[in-house]
Amino acid sequence: MSGSISLKTILFVLMSLAMWLPGQVFAAAGTVLLVLGDVERITEAGKKVSVRKGDAVEGGDIIVSGPGGQVMILMQDETRLSIRPNSRFVISQYRYLGNVTEDKSEYDLIKGGFRAITGKMGKRDKGSFKAKTPAGDIGVNGTDFSASYCTDVCSDKPGLYLMVRSGGIDLKNRAGQTRVIRGQIGFASSGKVAMQMVDRLHPALAASENMRDLNSMDSEEEIIAIAMRSGAGNAIADLLAAGISSEKLIRGAVMAGISPVAVLEPMLDLATDKTALLEATVKLVPDRAGDILMMSVATNRVSPQDAQKAASKAGVDAEVSRNAVALGKMLAPPPEKEEGKPSKEKTPDARPASTPKPPVELIPQGGTGGGEPASPS
Predict the structure, then answer these.
(1) Is the distance from CB of 171 to CB of 177 less than 8 angstroms?
(2) Are strands 104-117 and 144-150 parallel, antiparallel or unpaired?
(3) Would you write out the chain's pLDDT as a tens digit for each of its 377 residues?
(4) From CA 305, how far away is CA 345, in angstroms rounded?
């Protein structure tokens, strides 16, 4: 029939498009790698969805995290985004075709913070990555940086804090453009003020008090450290449930300035192989081996024998492990009696008060009387 398009023609056109256009056109903008706490995604259509590991994110989505909420997202071009607690982060535009002239990623930080390790777009063309903030626009060129717009908990010095771990970024606002390079921390109180370099992040933002640790933390370790320092909810159980390894969890906690002993206690409660976990922890923090071994035994979480075994495998000095385990045994509470089991203590023979009798002696086996009671002498 004239003027109509056959199904065969439509299929041919669709197949041609699939061949000519890159595969990324039909894929999501990014995928959720890790979620902690309450994180919500508001779609471009206004639908609210709880974020789960493996979920897709699209251009136009708004990511909203609660007080203990964090999420890590891997974008199509391999940019890695980590959204911090109490944040509102918009994926304003995202298009990745593998074409310098067409590719574009634009984000908008309304409040809170994020860390970005830029992927192919940011490394190839700094103009293809932009992050807007209330204090100015951030442009990058192959970098690893974090941005936090902090007001409520930074009431003594509110504004935008930028920290660069590698590469460099530019902040552009009404006061001009300022470059921040590796190892520097920039601060701008508003979009009308030029960014200045400062020595440290605001204490409310730092995942660690040690600048060296801050610079060396990978994305997961920083998420762990933030979760630990905030103390929001059951952080350890949430981190383990999210797939964080015990080793990385201990390392992140140590970087956050939290005692490995305090972290290990609930981890032992959840672990299926307590001896292996104890061994791995002692290897990670050998200077605290004595405290760790003593705690594990003193709280009855690990037997003295298993603690010694873990210490030996971890290469702990024999005298240190013996003393720690011995002290743990001294401090350990006695095991509780199981309900329903009779006591092993003998109960005295109850006799009526009116008929007192002397104790009965039994003739030893092989004696006279065939085992009959002997009369009292």
Answers:
(1) yes
(2) antiparallel
(3) 455 566 666 555 555 444 444 434 446 999 999 999 999 999 999 999 999 999 999 999 999 999 989 999 999 999 999 999 999 999 999 999 888 788 999 999 999 999 999 999 988 777 889 999 999 999 997 799 999 999 999 999 999 999 999 999 999 999 999 999 999 999 999 999 999 999 999 998 988 777 777 888 888 889 988 888 876 557 788 888 888 888 888 888 888 888 888 889 889 998 889 999 999 999 999 999 999 999 999 999 999 999 999 999 999 999 999 999 999 999 999 876 656 555 555 445 544 555 554 544 434 444 444 444 444 44
(4) 28
Task: Please give the single-letter amino acid code of residue 185.
Answer: I
| Residue found by looking up tokens 């809170």 in the block | 112
CA–CA dist 141, 41 (Å, integer): 28
What is the three-state SS of the chain?
A: CCCCCCHHHHHHHHHHHHHHCCHHHHCCCEEEEEEECCEEEECCCCCEEECCCCCEECCCCEEEECCCCEEEEEECCCCEEEECCCCEEEEEEEECCCCCCCCEEEEEEEEEEEEEECCHHHHHCHHHEEEEECCEEEEECCCEEEEEEECCCCCCCCEEEEEEEECEEEEEECCEEEEEECCCEEEECCCCCCCEEECCCCCCCCCCCCHHHHHHCCHHHHHHHHHHHHCCCCHHHHHHHCCCCHHHHHHHHHHCCCCHHHHHHHHHHHCCCHHHHHHHHHHHCHHHHHHHHHHHHHCCCCCHHHHHHHHHHCCCCHHHHHHHHHHHHHHCCCCCCCCCCCCCCCCCCCCCCCCCCCCCCECCCCCHHHHCECCCC
Domains of the chain: residue spans and CATH = 12-205 (2.60.120.1440), 214-331 (no CATH)
Amino acid at 81: L
Which residue has 């329903």 as its token pair? 340
Residue owning tokens 């450290």: 225
230 and 86 in contact (C-beta within 8 Å)?
A: no
Place of tokens 């969890």: 249
State the amino acid at position 31 in one-letter form: T
